[in-house]
Amino acid sequence: MGGTVQKISVQDGAVIVQFDGVVERADVFTLAAPDSIAIDVSGATAGQSAFAGGSVQKIRQRQFSADTARIVLDLAEPAIVTNGNFSADGKSLRLSLRPVALTEFSGTVARGNAQIIPPAAFRADPPKRRYEVTAPIRVNVGKGLPLVSGPADDSLPLVVIDAGHGGHDPGAISPHGGQLEKDVTLAIAKSVRDEMLKSGRVRVALTRDTDKFIVLQDHFQLARKLRADLFISIHADSAENPEATGGTVYALSEVASDRGAAACSA
């Protein structure tokens, strides 16, 4: 269940995208160099018909992934989306555009994207996952604990660094070149370990130092088995906006938000 892009047009300061069926949602974000507005429509197939005008100099569309059509509006002048909504039957998306100063446009690029969802009664089913991992869950870690690097002094703090994903679980996949999260996290984990060891003040172990799969519960159980003083888990989200930068740090709360967090803190 989904829809093909039938027509894209610019009318009275708005972009109208019409589909021949219902779609799941639309994610809208701005890009710089060149200034443009991108629309990722989940549950859609890219089409051909498009008519630019006004603030939109050119309209491009392609199949971004098996279940997502990407529409790019190349702008004749800086402009932002001030409002967006689907029609009552979910087959038409309207985005209102407003010309702005370059500084305001740049601020919109930095803030990220907006999501627009059709009415519930006229919404395509979400696409299936790109991959799925199935593995038995074990409570305890078996033999073969990770190697502890650093001074041979058990009084020094032990830091266990966990490179997320691995093996047949690639993690997030970059839309810009297809780089895998499991490779990025392993490279970061090794680099952080090497920098820590230079100080001579800590001991360090990696949950994995090769491309291998570790069952979810075993990631933190390895740290518990080693009696680690600090456990750091590294992940890398993919971003469709090439301008996206920065990092996010999460600390385990003393009050668990779900059963998984409760198991980690037990």
For the largest beta-sheet, the strand count, sense and barrel status come to: 6 strands, mixed
How much of the sequence lies in strands comes to 25-35%
Return the structural class: alpha/beta
Residue-averaged pLDDT, rounded? 83
Order of helices and strands: EEEEEEEEEEHEEEHEHEH
Instruction: Name the shape in a single word.
Output: elongated
Please give the number of β-strands.
Answer: 15
Give the low-confidence spans.
Answer: 135-142
Structural overview:
With 266 residues, the protein is α/β, with parallel strands linked by helices. Helices cover 17% and strands 33% of the residues. It is built from four helices and 15 strands. It has helices spanning 102-111, 181-199, 216-225, 259-265, and strands spanning 3-11, 14-19, 25-31, 36-42, 44-45, 50-51, 56-65, 68-75, 79-86, 92-99, 113-116, 148-149, 158-163, 203-206, 230-234. Strands 1, 2, 5, 6, 9 and 10 form a six-stranded mixed beta sheet that branches. A five-stranded antiparallel beta sheet has the order 7-8-4-3-11. Strands 12-14-13-15 form a four-stranded mixed beta sheet, with helices on both faces. The two termini are 43 Å apart.
Output the keywords.
266 residues, alpha/beta, six-stranded mixed sheet, five-stranded antiparallel sheet, 4 helices, 17% helix
Chain-wise SSE layout:
Layout: E1 3-11, E2 14-19, E3 25-31, E4 36-42, E5 44-45, E6 50-51, E7 56-65, E8 68-75, E9 79-86, E10 92-99, H1 102-111, E11 113-116, E12 148-149, E13 158-163, H2 181-199, E14 203-206, H3 216-225, E15 230-234, H4 259-265
Parallel strand pairs: 1-5, 1-6, 13-14, 13-15
Antiparallel strand pairs: 1-2, 2-10, 3-4, 3-11, 4-8, 7-8, 9-10, 12-14
